[in-house]
Amino acid sequence: MHHCSIIKKSVFTTGFAVLTFLGTAVFTSCGETPDEEVPTQVAEEQPAETPPTVLIQAEDFSTVSEGVSKVNQDDQSYANVAAAPAWLTFNVDVPEAGRYKIEINASAEGEVSAWIEDYVDNKDDRTYNITGKIPLTSTTNDFTVQHKDGSPLNAGQHQMKLHVEGGAAQIDWIKLTLLKKHQKTPQLLTQKTDGENWEIVWADEFDEDGSPNMDKWTYDIGDWGWGNNELQYYTENASKNARQENGHLIIEAHKNDGPHEWSSARLTTRGKTSFLYGRIEIKAKVPAQRGNWAAGWTLGDEYVDELSWPYCGEIDILETVGYEMDDATGDGKAHASIHCGAYYFKLGNQPTANTPVKNMEKEFHVYAIDWTPEGITASVDGETYFEYNDTSTELAWPYSKPQNLILNLAMGGGWGGAEGMDENMTSQKYVIDYVRVYEKK
Q: Which of 22, 65, 273, 312 shows a CA-CA span of 20 to 30 A to 246?
């Protein structure tokens, strides 16, 4: 539905909400731009800067599948999907890198859903699902807005594809709104690895009760599926999902939390501190029930959106899934892996290993990597069970570049939910005693 005329202009005065799409833009206020500048003495009364927003009119698709057409009716225009599965592609100019809310204004009857694929023309023939399933069904048969939060998007041109599944639908528009700007990491700690003894250079002991230390961590937010069709919404500043308590960091997932199927938390040092080499230790207890997926890992600081991975590199220090654990004893398996351009799931060759661990739920264990210019090893309680040392190419060894730390508890998804969800499970708790980074001196 078009309510404002299109203004072909690339630069706009701040203070106005500007909607940009397909190389054009629309002011959300249809009035004229004021000619006079606001006096400096009343600057504090100016409205807050409007987050960058991209509006895509569905009928402005570039290509479509069979059965999709443009409709103009009652001063409205939209794309009509006669039957599913169907798709529409769009060329989208994203103004700023960050995490976005993605909204779809649509009407449909029955169990109809949509999802958005980014970088349709990517060189690896990958499918980058950046929203997960978005229901389109409207109880009133009118256009209704549904959304997902947190989708990562880099600035620049994107070829996107809207997939519709389950039945017929009418799509009015898609809107992208920046929720959180991408932050470059200001501090890099490079650890020496050729000395005699390991000494701590960075740590969080989680000693003070209350919120996590925001000088060391920031939150990743949203429910876009995180590339794995995960179920949780990662919250920000919600103590029930992330808090320091009795000397520990508690990351806790809750079922049926308000509008969310699950809520949880994901903390990262991105935007604060990144690391290059050294020993990284995570002392933790992990939950046991079927459906959870606890992790402590690193991600290349070059990551901006899904096109960055796996070329930025990833090191999995600690990964566990509840379905591998015995609910009675807490015995399970710890997994360590690396992912990079030369070795990752699409190629079916990612280096990985696992080891049995006793009572992972009730007892703390130390999960660690030793990362040097020559290779990476992983251990539990000092026992090495994983080694990787292919430094032959940049694709095989992106680990000469900084990585940031991530702690998260996912629910469901391609691995965590591979054997379903425990129907009696209402919450899960991941407890971290400390995170430490060492260098040799």
A: 273
Domain 187-440 has CATH 2.60.120.200: yes
Per the annotation, the verdict on 423 as an active-site residue is no
Query: Rounded distance, CA 346 to CA 109, Å?
Result: 36
Could you state, in order of their start, the residue ranges of all structural domains in the chain? 18-181, 187-440
Please choose, from the candidates 362, 436, 406, the residue with its C-alpha nearest in 3D space to the C-alpha of residue 206. Answer: 436
Catalytic, 36? Answer no
Please check whether residue 432 is in contact with residue 407, taking contact to mean a CB–CB distance below 8 angstroms.
yes
Concatenating the DSSP letter of every residue in 204-271 gives E---SSBS--TTT-EE--B-S-TTTTB-EEEPSS-TTTEEEETTEEEEEEEEEETTEEEEE-EEE-TT
Residue range 233-249: mean pLDDT, rounded = 98
Give Rg (Cα) of the chain: 24
Catalytic pick among 117, 281, 314, 324: 314
CB–CB of 268/390 below 8 Å? no
In this prediction, residue 73 carries a pLDDT of 85
